[in-house]
UniProtKB/TrEMBL annotation:
Major facilitator superfamily (MFS) profile domain: residues covered: 1-165
Alphabetically ordered keywords of this record: Membrane, Transmembrane, Transmembrane helix
PANTHER family per record: MAJOR FACILITATOR SUPERFAMILY (MFS) PROFILE DOMAIN-CONTAINING PROTEIN, SOLUTE CARRIER FAMILY 2
InterPro entries named among the record's database cross-references: GLUT (IPR045263), MFS_dom (IPR020846), MFS_sugar_transport-like (IPR005828), MFS_trans_sf (IPR036259)
Organism name: Steatornis caripensis
Localization, UniProt: Membrane
Protein name in UniProt: GTR9 protein
Membrane topology: Multi-pass membrane protein
Top-level taxonomic group: Eukaryota
Gene from which the chain derives: Slc2a9_2
Keyword Transmembrane: yes
One matching Pfam family: Sugar_tr
GO biological process, one term: dehydroascorbic acid transport
Record field: transmembrane: 6-24, 113-136, 143-164
Length: 165
């Protein structure tokens, strides 16, 4: 019954993919990245209901004013910045600790290829993190979530279909 359990995560991804278009963009994203004040206020009302959100809006405007002169760094610039080494070390430690979860050992693989599978999974996770963090600034979180959910649902449908055949 493990294939049913695997299909369940695909079903959840499909449901999220169907409902994502009905949710607005994040208000801070609309205001800080896009500069869309009307869209920000509309998203606040849609997410939080009717009310006066002038205080939250003013806070975001203060944040925009503070970050106006701040340079947005790309991935390579972040990797060269010494002040972020503790955070990068923590992320790297978490990424490496995922390799100790035993996922490759429980997949009924030959013992001789388990280290290579673990290394391949780690490399693909690292590439995914770098790729996603670099495109999120260009396209926003919504497009990234759409693509991720769509790809996850598609792959799980193909996997389940191939298992059934």
């Amino acid at each position: 019954m493990w294939n049913v359990l695997l299909s369940f995560s695909g079903l959840v991804a499909l449901i999220q993919l169907l409902f994502l278009p009905f949710f607005p963009e994040s208000p801070p994203y609309l205001l800080l990245q896009k500069g869309d004040k009307a869209g920000c206020l509309k998203a606040m009302k849609q997410l939080w209901g009717e009310g006066n959100y002038q205080t939250e809006f003013d806070d975001m405007m203060k944040e925009k004013a503070v970050t106006k002169g701040t340079k947005i760094m790309n991935v390579l610039e972040v990797l060269k910045e010494p002040s972020v080494y503790p955070q990068l070390s923590t992320m790297l430690l978490l990424l490496l600790s995922l390799q100790l979860c035993g996922l490759s050992a429980t997949a009924n693989l030959q013992k001789s290829i388990i280290p290579y599978v673990s290394l391949g999974v780690a490399i693909s996770e690292l590439i995914s993190i770098i790729f996603c963090s670099s495109i999120i600034d260009r396209f926003g979180r919504r497009i990234l979530m759409w693509g991720g959910y769509l790809l996850m649902a598609l792959i799980l449908v193909l996997l389940e279909t191939s298992l059934l055949l």
